[in-house]
Structures are given as C-alpha cells and as structure tokens.
Design brief:
Layout: H1 2-36, H2 42-62, H3 66-74, H4 78-99, H5 102-110, H6 114-121, H7 126-132, H8 138-147, H9 150-161, H10 167-170, E1 177-178, H11 184-194, E2 203-207, E3 213-218, H12 219-224, H13 231-234, H14 248-258, E4 262-266, E5 272-277, H15 278-296, H16 309-336, H17 338-343, H18 346-374, H19 383-413, H20 416-446, H21 455-478
Helix pairs in contact: 1-2, 3-4, 4-5, 4-6, 6-8, 7-9, 14-15, 16-21, 18-19, 18-20, 18-21, 19-20, 20-21
Length: 480
C-alpha cells in the first residue's frame, strides 16, 4: 500500500514537471511568433502576451508544494529555471531554497539581489536560516543578523557556531516546554491558547525554572490521563537526549533505532537548548546517502545536472586523473610479461576475467565495510574476526568460480595446466580483493577520512594490477 502511494506521488510530481515544461515551450513558441509579427502597437501586444503566458504558468506553480517546485527547478536548464524562479521566489523563495540541492541553490542565489535574498531569508525560522547561511553573501548575513531580535540573533549565532554534521547544526528551537508542578488540565489550556503546535510535536519537554531538562510528556499520555493529575506523575524521566556536539549520523541511527519523531537537545549542564525532529533527520540521511554515492563514484561534490561543461569537468577530473595513473600502472604490469603473452596468446583473452572478478568481489567487501563503519559496528575487538571471515568467503568463492573458469579455459584451449593457473589466479586475486576491501576503508577511517571517498577506485586499481601480476606471473612460472 505504501509503495502504491509513493508511486502515485512520484507520478504526480512527474506530471507537474511535464505540465510546466509544456507551458514553458508554449510560452517560448508564442513569444517567438508575436515577436516576428509586424503589427501596430507591437511592443504593447508583445508585453500583454508575455504577461498572459506567465500568469498561466504562475497559477500552476502556486498549486504546487515547495518541494515539488524545487524538484522542477532541478530538472530545468538554467534559462528556464531562472524564468520559473522569478515567478515563485517572492512568496516562497526561502522554503524552496532550502529544498533544492546545493548546486542548484547556488545558481538561484546568484540570480538574486540583496533585497530579494533578505526577503527570502526573513520568511524562515532561525534554524532554517542557519542551514541557508553558508550560501548567503556576507553582507546579506550581516544585515539579516541586525534585523533579528536579541533572542533569535543569539540562537542563529549559536546554530552557526556548531560544525557541520553535528546535532547542534541540525537542531531547531521551536518547541513547547512545560513545568512538572502543574496539572494536565493546565497544560491543555496552555496548548489551546497557543493555537498551533510546532511541526512534528509528539511530546512536550518538561523543564524547571532555569530550563533544566527533567523529562518528557507525550501527547498520548496527556490525552489519555485524568486532567487533574500532575505532569510529574505521568511524565517520563528517562528519555533519549542528544548534546549539540554529538555526531549527526549517530543521532540519525538513534532516530531509526528508537522510532523517534522528536528528541530534546541538552547542553553539558542538562539545560534544554533545542530539539531534533524526524524530518531533519530524514533530510540528513538522504544527503549523506547522496554524498556517499557521489564519493564512491569519485565526484567531489553534488553536480547541477545543467551546470556548464567546465564546471562538470572540474568536479570529475580528480579521480579520473588518479584512475589514469592506476591504469598506466596496470599496463606496465602487463608490459613486464609481454614475452609470456606472445608465447601464449590465450593469456591476453583470459586476464581480464581475473581482474574483473577480483574488482567485483573487492567492491562487495568494500561496500559491506563502509556500511558497517557508518553504523559504528566495527571496533578493535571484532576487526580480526571480520577480516578472517572475508578471507574465508573469498577462498570459497575462489575455489567455486575459479574451478568453473578453469574448466572452461581447459576446454577452450585444451590445456589442463592453463585451467589450474586460472584457478590459482582467481583464488589469489579474490583473497587480495578481500584484504584490500577490509584494510582500505578501515585505514581511511582511522585517518579521519571518509572511507567511501575514492575507495572503489583504489580497490579496482589494486585488483587490476594485482590480478594481472598474479595471473601472468603464475603463467610464466608454470606454462612457459
């Protein structure tokens, strides 16, 4: 059922995108036709037609959620993107800027003047401004800080002071706090006076007069207990709490583990300073997943689909250069055994198999280790067991698949010795792949580097060069 609803939502977004594209194409076509016409009061008519077409497009955009508009902006070439952006940025600019990718946000902000940026930022909550702050010009941020009251200015400066990917950089300050010495009836009257609860409020935070955190009162308990009972009698003193300096990925794991919707953030003195919500955690997890996928592919940063060719070249060239060097090393390994290849031509046809299966196996191991490191499942006590387990897996796979490929080589080239060499080469290369698949990400993690960045390129380089060396070396020893 959930998958069906998700499919319907995706289809709706795709339909909206297509409708916007159709309206843009119609707008362009009509503009070109009117522009070519020779008629009285041409400029006035052209202006009226222009406004009429854009009004239709703006009505369509007004019907869409900010996240859907962001999706559409990301899917449009720069010229059309800026045209659509001009139609929506005045009213919903801040929300949409938060929804689009970093690369697209950069192009939108570049098209805005100072007054437009201030108007967009002023629509946002303090924590949302903190998310947008790194992309805003310095003069805009200075003016924005001056426009805030002292409390919100202090909150914004506090949020901006925390390193990226920490709980402090993700928390918000919009929460409901209560005391433990009042009754549930008083709490209910207080909530009714508020009129509206902050988004993703599933619990109220209980504090003392100095805002020291004492516990939580879930809305479920609030609604199902006797209104005359005190908050202290029904609140939960034990709760999952976070500190501003905690790693965001650890907080995300806790949200998943304990099925949290919101959670308090307290400082080292147990004073309540903010809260985390599930929507922010979901956004963080998505961004981390995207960044990891980009890192594995060797991309330095998220890339605008319609960025200039030069910008894309700059984003991609680093690991391509490294890959070129590793490929050259692999070619030199082959060059060492040119004499062997000349004597047995079959070696040239078979050696890509050894390198290919080694690279695939190494990347499988690498993926498992990177994921385990991200989840905090690897520590000094279990590294040896994990290492031995991966070697056993590679050994068994080497015997099975090496045996199959060895048999095929024997039948194709009528050489039992060549088949045995294939078995040995595949086994040894899979063991090498397992060794590197465990060691490379763990070593990078110990150095404080992201184990996903470039690891796939390094694994492929090792299994290619190593596979060629092992296979051709064994062939030289036993066949020539």
């Amino acid at each position: 059922m959930a998958e069906t609803e998700q499919t319907k939502v995706q289809e709706s977004v795709q339909e909206s995108l297509q409708q916007v594209i159709d309206l843009l194409q119609k707008h362009q076509l009509v503009e070109e036709l009117v522009h070519k016409q020779d008629m009285p009061r041409h400029d006035l008519i052209e202006s009226l037609v222009h406004k009429q077409n854009l009004t239709t497009l703006q009505k369509k955009l007004d019907e869409l959620h900010s996240a859907d508009v962001a999706y559409i902006l990301e899917a449009l070439p720069l010229e059309q993107r800026l045209l659509v952006w001009d139609l929506v940025k005045v009213e919903r600019g801040g929300d949409i800027l938060l929804e689009v990718s970093d690369a697209v946000r950069e192009s939108l902000i570049a098209s805005m003047d100072r007054h437009e940026l201030l108007a967009a930022a002023e629509q946002l909550d303090t924590d949302e401004i903190a998310d947008l702050a790194p992309d805003l010009p310095h003069d805009v941020m200075s003016e924005l800080l001056e426009s805030l009251d002292s409390q919100n200015r202090a909150r914004l400066q506090s949020a901006m002071s925390f390193p990226e990917d920490t709980v402090g950089s993700l928390m918000d300050f919009d929460m409901v706090t209560i005391r433990d010495d009042i009754t549930l009836e008083v709490v209910l009257r207080y909530l009714r006076r508020l009129g509206e609860l902050p988004g993703h409020t599933d619990k109220l935070f209980v504090v003392d007069r100095d805002d020291n955190f004492k516990g939580i009162l879930s809305l479920k308990r609030l609604l199902t207990h006797d209104p005359e009972v005190s908050v202290a009698a029904v609140m939960a003193e034990e709760a999952v709490t976070f500190h501003p300096d905690d790693e965001a990925d650890e907080a995300a794991q806790a949200f998943e583990r304990y099925d949290l919707v919101s959670a308090p953030v307290v400082d080292k003195n147990s004073k309540l300073v903010g809260r985390l919500t599930v929507d922010v955690m979901m956004d963080f997890i998505r961004e981390e997943t995207d960044n990891e996928a980009l890192s594995i592919a060797g991309l330095r940063e998220e890339e605008d689909l319609f960025a200039t060719a030069w910008r894309s070249i700059q984003n991609r060239w680093t690991w391509l250069a490294i890959n070129l060097v590793t490929a050259f090393i692999a070619s030199r390994v082959i060059g060492v055994f040119e004499g062997s290849i000349e004597k047995i031509v079959a070696l040239a046809a078979l050696m890509p198999i050894v390198a290919g299966i080694g690279g695939n196996s190494g990347n499988q191991t690498l993926t498992m280790i990177v994921r385990a490191l991200a989840l905090g499942q690897i520590h000094s006590d279990n590294v040896r067991k994990l290492f031995l387990k991966e070697l056993k897996v590679s050994l068994v796979n080497g015997l099975i698949w090496g045996g199959i490929i060895g048999l095929v080589a024997w039948l194709l080239y009528h050489s039992p010795a060549l088949g045995v060499v294939m078995i040995g080469a595949i086994m040894l290369n899979l063991l090498l792949a397992a060794l590197m698949g465990v060691m490379i990400p763990i070593f990078m993690h110990k150095l404080g580097r992201d184990p996903a960045v470039g690891s796939s390129v390094m694994i492929t380089a090792v299994t290619d060069s190593g596979g060629f060396f092992i296979f051709l070396g064994l062939a030289t020893i036993f066949l020539i």
